[in-house]
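User: These chains co-purify. Model them together.
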Amino acid sequence: QVTLKESGPGILQPSQTLSLTCTFSGFSLSTYGMGVGWIRQPSGKGLEWLANIWWDDDKYYNPSLKNRLTISKDTSNNQAFLKITNVDTADTATYYCARIVYGYNYFDYWGQGVMVTVSS
Amino acid sequence: DIQMTQSPASLSASLGETVTIECLASEDIYSNLAWYQQKPGKSPQLLIYDASSLQDGVPSRFSGSESGTQYSLEINSLQSEDAATYFCQQHHDYPYTFGAGTKLELK
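Assistant: Joint model of the two components:
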């Protein structure tokens, strides 16, 4: 059974760095073809893909966020991480992590999401 | 970036009816399209992948099709639990992009 769960700070101030953790079970990021993606959704709005990390440590980022994103993983603890630097109010959203399988590239299992508010 | 133009933004239908939601890709995405259902306060759930393949456990009243760069999600025999917002996503090329969503309301 595949499950994912996001965790984060809840609230942070503009210019700070947002650190998110995705803890998962039912698959391993050391297994060929496995990947985790991060997607966010401002309240009442659409979905925005942010980044993917793959079993071989290959990483892809949404260029719209330029150099603010860093994705990483800890395979021994079944976790993936996302950092967003220099946040502002536009980064207020629910952040989801989701599993992705190489060659298929859609998100087949999603976490419940974690709400993040950027406010001074 | 590949743009996904989804329509309509909202629709209202009655139980038992059939509805169609569409996504137009700005370029060829070679059937690499997924459909997700999102209920209020919940995370998106995969319904359809590769334009027309039904995810395990998804009722057969959901179906996907394509014509060129136009992709459609059809829901037959609407049930009350189908009230949700539906999103398309192209998974052909980075950056992955989503449609803006269609909110389906049951009358």
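The CA atoms of residues 35 and 88 of chain B lie 4 Å apart.
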